[in-house]
TrEMBL record:
It comes from the Bacteria. PANTHER family: HELICASE MJ1565-RELATED. It comes from Qipengyuania spongiae. Pfam families: DUF87. Transmembrane segments: none annotated. InterPro entries: HerA-like, HerA_central, P-loop_NTPase. Residues 142-376 form the Helicase HerA central domain. This is DUF87 domain-containing protein.
Amino acid sequence: MPPSQAETGYSNENATQPIGVVLEIAGSGSQIAIDIQRLNECMEDEDPSIALAGQVGSQIKIRVNNSWLLASVRNQKQDRRADGSIIANIDFLGEGQEEKLTGRLHGFRRGVTRYPVPGALVYPATTGDLRQVYASDGRDSITVGNVYPTRDIRAGLYIDAMLGKHFALLGSTGTGKSTSAALILHRICEAAPEGHIVMIDPHGEYSAAFRRTGMILDVSNLQMPYWLMNFEEHCEVLLSSSGNERQVDEDILAKCLLKARSKSRLAGSLGKVTVDSPIPYLLSDLSNEIQDQMGKLDKATTSAPYMRIKNKLDEIKSDPRYQFMFSGMLVGDTMADFISKVFRMPANGKPISIIDVSGVPSDITATVVAVLSRLVFDFAIWGREEKTAPVLLVCEEAHRYVPSEKHADGNSVGKILSRIAKEGRKYGISLGLITQRPSDLAEGVLSQCGTIISMRLNNDRDQEFVRAAMPEGARGFLDSIPALRNRECIICGEGVAIPIRVNFDTLEEVKRPASDDPSFLELWNSSGREEDAVERIVQRWRSQG
């Protein structure tokens, strides 16, 4: 006996009538023929899932013995051999049992054990069916929006599966990517108020969104000690030469840096010190060591490389823009305090730290991100015996830091983020990448992301890149990526039971990032006191504050 209208909230006449037949079966994808008249009848149905049945991106079900197979429609074309018929390719998503009394689908699981035979009947999937399919299987999850095309089925993301195998959020500029990222992070913070999340924010957008629930760190209060840098990062900041000169400069810097580190009282108690050891040293010690080596008569080269390094060091020490990192006040052993502050250990109800690097001089931004990323990785490696809590590292504008081979510049940040993508989950590090140009991302990095959340992508190359990274069963959804509305996305991979199209929740004003596009007409039609504003801007510009 089928369910009554009172049970489902919708008339179920269309649900019990087939809309087509199976023509061909081939592994993950197959072909069906759909009756146009039945398609038009379904379009009038009150149930939004039935109303979209048979259309591209919608779900249909096929009966196999006493179970239902669920599939999504990938494409449609008119059948020239039979009038009033449409041929569609479908991708199988999974299967569930058929309830004897009601005919409903229940106990849904991914994958297919028994395929239908050509001639099997195709039915529309109802909202009741989809509710079973998208119902949480008991794992911890966060809800981020409603499943399309339903009005009330909540879309959940399984936190452990999503974070355990990394995730990527992709979408062209203006699709609501920043707000969606803030929404997901807010939901994670609500579910885990004692979590440990570090977000690299290159444009200063997210400070407004997490002022209440996070720690906002920028050049005014980051106080990141220069001596935390390893040798490779020192080279990026202090050396500007290339080719053969670069090798000479690196040898000199390595020798002088090791001497400067060895002078620390801490070095005496450790016994073994290397150029990479995060041990405090005085910038003046490094400068004096370079000066001393330059004065030696038996040096292997002229004084030019010594002068290059010393001049760069003096320039950085005297430039106020670098004070957040190269201040003489940062010579104390504050490593434990710095890590506790940045990694939120303890979180004290503020589980996320927003590292706003928009005020960092552009020539060392990549190095600052590299140091922070490497600290996350090294902390996890050395903390294995302690079984330290996992850390989520979220990187906005990820294509700037992990570029593809043709854009690669050999920066240490690309190497460390690639390493975290490949090895991080073994050590309890989760990586979240946010980008509007997935095709400019290093190829191996996106393929390491177990969950992909794709908003609208306008560029063909980006669409192809995402298509290659997504699993087979999501093909039908992928074709709708260019047609997604703002704040809509396709989610597939480990974080969801099956690929889904989701309409994100609206985020409250106070939790939104400051990423709204300016209204040109509105701003160009309001004038007054521009001279004063220009004066203030010039003043801030000159004082670099």
